[in-house]
Amino acid sequence: MGSNDELYEKSVLDVPKLQRYARKMAKAAHSKVPMASHQEYVVRQHQEVRRKGWFSKESVTVSERCAQGPALRYWELGRVADETFRRKDGADLYGHVHINWTGVDDGSMIILLEDGELRHVAYSVRDTGPHYPVLEMETSHTEWKVAAMRPHDYLLLDRPNLGRMREKTYSRKSGLLYMEELRRNYRVTVRQKGLGLSLALNRLLKRAE
User: Fold this and answer.
1) What is the per-residue pLDDT across 134-160, written as a single tens digit (0 to 9) for each?
2) What is the value of pTM for the model shown?
3) Residues 24, 110, 186, 13: is their CA dihedral positive or negative?
4) How distant, in Å, are the alpha carbons of 97, 111, 128, 144, 203 from that of 115?
């Protein structure tokens, strides 16, 4: 085990100190650093009666996407990707290039709320869809699970994912292929437990100056 790892394992995580520093940074950044926002939605279903032809009606189920609670306003302090995968492939059909796109992005994120509270976010993004030279059709599905900080969440930014991205590009007259993948490879990059989060808060302070 290297010296950095030894120092890290011997160090003690000071959660109250990090929480105090987070509240201080939120006050400093207030009205000086733009905040992002995230809105949670819930899908509700209800029945509607619709006319079918001149003399008959039918009952159909209608899905409606409704906002759930107020939008969450926050500063993003940092994220650690879990595993990502992206792929594009295409083929020339009768002179038109048809490209299929797939993207997967999972991981964890630490955010700072306006009142100085820290939150852990488990995020998941799925992108799929065919792309054409003129018309682009794509669907994107994003899920957020926001939770209170647990002790090990304060260490999240101490261990970034240093996994390698594998890339392969292949092109020919009939199309192209592009693949990209990130494997799990977490490594400690600081000497003190919680220092990764502390440095992220410090960067937010610099943006407020």
Assistant:
1) 445 556 678 889 999 999 999 999 999
2) 0.75
3) positive
4) 50, 12, 36, 20, 18
